Recover the amino acids of this structure.
């Protein structure tokens, strides 16, 4: 499949998905609270480090309907920017967070492969979205994010991890699930080092393992 078809197919899939938490989580809306709790614990640990990240500005990548922004990032950060390629999702996210919420920052209606951050972020959060990028575009995206970090800033990635050594392709939504070793290779190619990693607990047994990675430039 060509890159153009890969990206077009994913965009077409999400265009038909309702702008709800259950929609963006593929029918697993019931795991949202467990997910946010795990992310909050992970973030709290990073904020308790001797030289922690600041909490001025965060970026939510593949923000969907604003679930992560509203329930995780907004309580911690002064401002939260969102980037999301689906128009109905990002419009819903603005409503969910509150159009008049002083913490709602800039909304970028763009795909990640075309997005170039132009601010300095304390935290860049990427969850359940990087499987929609090709390997080359993912490395390129992470390099751009790395250059857009403030002092002590971090990139946090929370993604499904394939159980075997091979990359898995989902033909329905045109996404890939990468094995652990491939994620490490991609981080290395993007010149990022892992500060902390953890496996999300409490999820159903019949879904992929979900890993959290906190990354900093080498």
């Amino acid at each position: 499949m060509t890159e153009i078809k890969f990206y077009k197919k994913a965009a077409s899939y999400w265009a038909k998905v309702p702008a709800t938490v259950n929609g963006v989580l593929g029918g697993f809306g019931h795991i949202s609270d467990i997910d946010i709790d795990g992310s909050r614990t992970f973030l709290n640990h990073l904020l308790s480090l001797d030289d922690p990240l600041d909490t001025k500005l965060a970026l939510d990548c593949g923000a969907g309907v604003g679930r992560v922004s509203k329930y995780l990032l907004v309580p911690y950060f002064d401002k939260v920017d969102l980037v999301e390629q689906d128009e109905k999702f990002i419009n819903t996210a603005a409503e969910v967070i509150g159009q008049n919420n002083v913490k709602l920052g800039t909304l970028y209606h763009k795909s990640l492969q075309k997005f170039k951050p132009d601010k300095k972020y304390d935290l860049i959060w990427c969850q359940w979205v990087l499987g929609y990028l090709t390997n080359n575009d993912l490395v390129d995206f992470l390099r751009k994010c790395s250059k857009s970090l403030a002092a002590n800033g971090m990139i946090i990635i929370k993604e499904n991890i394939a159980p075997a050594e091979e990359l898995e392709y989902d033909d329905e939504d045109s996404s890939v699930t990468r094995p652990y070793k491939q994620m490490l290779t991609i981080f290395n190619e993007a010149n990022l080092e892992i500060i902390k990693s953890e496996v999300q607990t409490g999820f159903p047994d019949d879904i992929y393992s979900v890993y959290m990675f906190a990354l900093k430039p080498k």
About this structure: The longest helix spans residues 32-47. Residues 12 and 175 are 12 Å apart (CA to CA). The domain at 3-111+121-217 is CATH 3.40.50.150 (Rossmann fold). The chain has one domain: 3-111+121-217.
